[in-house]
Design goal:
Strand order of the largest sheet of chain B: 6-7-8-3-9-10
Largest sheet of chain B: 6 strands, mixed
Structural class of chain A: mainly alpha
CATH architecture of the largest domain in chain A: Orthogonal Bundle
CATH class of the largest domain in chain A: Mainly Alpha
Oligomer: heterodimer
Distance between the termini of chain A: 12 Å
Order of helices and strands of chain B: EEEHEEEHHHEHEHEEHH
Number of strands of chain B: 10
Radius of gyration of chain A: 26 Å
Structural class of chain B: alpha/beta
Largest interface: A-B, 21 and 27 residues
Bound molecules: adenosine-5'-triphosphate, magnesium ion
Helix content of chain A: over 70%
Number of domains of chain A: 2
Largest sheet of chain A: none
CATH superfamily of the largest domain in chain A: MetI-like
Distance between the termini of chain B: 39 Å
Strand content of chain B: 15-25%
Number of strands of chain A: 0
Chain lengths: 285, 262
């Protein structure tokens, strides 16, 4: 397969000078990744420049602030420890909410998926709760858990729970019955079937569920912090807006962005490791 | 008598009359080949023997007792791919040993032997998604013979192998079962393969399924396949079986057309 850009570059030269034809060269994946990165940086840089220019010229600065002000705000918060303190609070709540929701979701998902009868009874009940708007639970949770950490953790856990639950449930149900029979004929008991077939097979789905639910854990915490809290990134965000300081809100969002990126990177690393068998047979590019 | 399928009735939703009082016996140490047109019910018979399917009427006895649930005394090499996709070739092959709590040292030793037998030593650490179709079949084969079940159920085990490897596997399979005294129930489409390997060949066909003819190749347990291939009787048998297969095929097709018309 010849690369399009190569052949158009070299075709005239070959005709004129009879340069021996080179073997078609593919752009190496590293090079390509680097190019993509440069393009992304350029794109974001251009956007920031445009923002800086447009602020107070086309749009009132009160509404959108501007990158240089936001940067000043970030530096100030970095300096006085506001960032560190509130980020830490948010990360803690996110991690706890994620762990709680994910383990409950996996457990119930596995039980309802693996035992048909249990599933028949419990699955409709879970679905009924799922259709409830989660925000409707906030007042109740506030009443039960108060303004502290527990409220934010529980709120985020309920969101994570359903995502992980459904992925685990369907993952377990999807397991090939042919595979299960084969392993049972080889002599596996129920527990061995669960450990060696059902769990690894469902792991693809579970991992996907875990991966998509991490950002939701963060969203849950931030929303809870905005609703009722005096700490955390969500609180900073809401406070900025209530004081008509767009710079503060954007600085808080920037902080959240960094957290989200780090968390996503981490979870990708973990799940990719567990799913190495899945990517082993993919053609190289 | 190791396997005794006796007066069994069985059918699927769309194939209700598949088995109407079918009988099939396999003696201890016997090698039985099932030969028959595609879709006649060979794999179904094997699933009954493995306890994956249960007869509507009649009995499946194994080792003198009626079969309840799955048959854990057999090694079953299915027609489909049942390798665990998340485990390496080596882990897949030793799985039955692990499940049976065989010690690590012995697992390694047996793995070493069978993996060389099926010519997969270089692919030991690969995942199934990295294997070719024939390599997958070989891994499945290795897994079904790595432990010593009383009986091997093999559903077209060598279909995807190249001719050379198939010859090696034929001789190896024969010497293994001669040594261990295992019984084999073997499905194939390949007429010469059935003559080379089996003590008894059942040509199957029709709907409901019946045994059209039973043939006993006269070569004994310690046959040397290179010699058998030159026997006059081998060619005779091959001709005869080819004719039978044609009849079986025609009869099955006619019967299916008849049930469709109803
Ligand atoms: N799970 C199933 N559900 C419904 N019908 C089935 C099922 N499995 C097999 N059949 C039908 O039963 C008949 C016998 O199938 P079987 O798989 O036993 O054939 P076979 O002799 O093994 O064929 P082949 O040589 O192609 O593997 C076929 O007509 C098929 O359509
Ligand atoms: Mg079949």
């Amino acid at each position: 397969m010849t690369d399009a850009s190569m052949s158009t570059d070299h075709a005239p030269a070959a005709r004129v000078a009879r340069v021996p034809r080179k073997a078609p060269v593919r752009i190496s994946p590293t090079r390509r990744r680097l190019e993509n990165l440069v393009l992304q940086v350029v794109l974001i840089g251009a956007f920031l420049l445009l923002w800086e220019y447009a602020s107070d010229r086309w749009v009132p600065k009160l509404m959108v602030s501007k990158p240089s002000d936001i940067w000043t705000q970030i530096v100030r918060w970095l300096g006085d420890g506001t960032f560190a303190r509130n980020l830490w609070v948010t990360i803690q709540a996110t991690a706890l909410g994620f762990l709680l929701g994910a383990s409950a979701g996996m457990l119930l998902g596995f039980v309802t998926g693996a035992w048909r009868r249990v599933g028949e009874v419990l699955q409709p009940i879970v679905t009924a709760f799922y259709t409830l708007p989660r925000l409707a639970l906030a007042p109740l949770f506030l009443m039960w858990f108060g303004l502290g950490m527990e409220f934010r953790v529980m709120f985020s856990a309920t969101i994570v729970f359903f995502l992980v639950y459904y992925n685990t449930y369907f993952g377990v149900r999807e397991v090939s019955s042919e595979l299960i029979s084969a392993v049972r004929i080889m002599g596996a008991n129920q527990l061995q079937v669960a450990l060696r077939v059902i769990i690894p097979s469902a792991l693809v789905w579970v991992a996907a569920g875990l991966k998509i639910s991490v950002p939701y854990a963060l969203v849950g915490v931030v929303v809870a912090e905005m609703l009722a809290s005096d700490e955390g990134m969500g609180y900073l965000l809401a406070r900025g807006a209530s004081q008509f300081s767009a710079a503060q809100s954007f600085a808080a969002i920037a902080g959240l962005l960094v957290v989200a990126l780090i968390v996503d990177w981490l979870i990708t690393r973990v799940t990719d490791r567990a799913l190495r068998w899945k990517t082993a047979g993919v053609p190289q590019n | 008598m190791l396997l005794d399928i006796h007066d069994v009735h069985f059918g699927y939703q769309n194939e209700v009359e598949l088995l109407q009082g079918f009988d099939l016996q396999v003696e201890r140490g016997e090698f039985v080949a099932l030969l028959g047109p595609s879709g006649c019910g060979k794999s179904t018979l094997m699933n009954l023997a493995a306890g994956l399917l249960h007869p509507l009427r009649g009995d499946v006895d194994f080792d003198g007792a009626p079969l309840r649930g799955l048959n854990r005394e057999v090694g079953y090499m299915t027609q489909g791919d049942t390798l665990l996709p998340w485990a390496s070739v080596a882990k897949n092959i030793t799985l039955p040993l692990e499940l049976r709590k065989v010690s690590r040292a012995e697992r390694e030793e047996r793995l070493d032997r069978v993996i060389r037998l099926v010519n997969l030593a270089d692919a030991k650490e690969k995942f199934p998604s990295e294997l070719s179709g024939g390599m997958k079949r070989r891994a499945l084969l290795a897994r079904s013979i790595v432990y010593d079940p009383q009986m091997l159920l093999m559903d077209e085990p060598f279909g995807a192998l190249d001719a050379q490897l198939r010859e090696v596997m034929h001789q190896e399979l024969l010497s293994t079962v001669a040594r261990t005294g295992q019984s084999v129930l073997f499905i194939t489409h390949d007429i010469s393969e059935s003559i080379l390997l089996a003590d008894r060949i059942l040509v199957l066909g029709g709907l409901p399924l019946r045994v059209m003819e039973e043939i006993r190749p006269p070569y004994g347990k310690n046959r040397v396949l290179a010699q058998v291939r030159n026997e006059e009787s081998y060619f005779e048998l091959e001709r005869h079986l080819r004719e039978l297969m044609r009849e079986a095929d025609a009869e099955t097709k006619a019967a299916k057309a008849r049930t469709l018309a109803h």
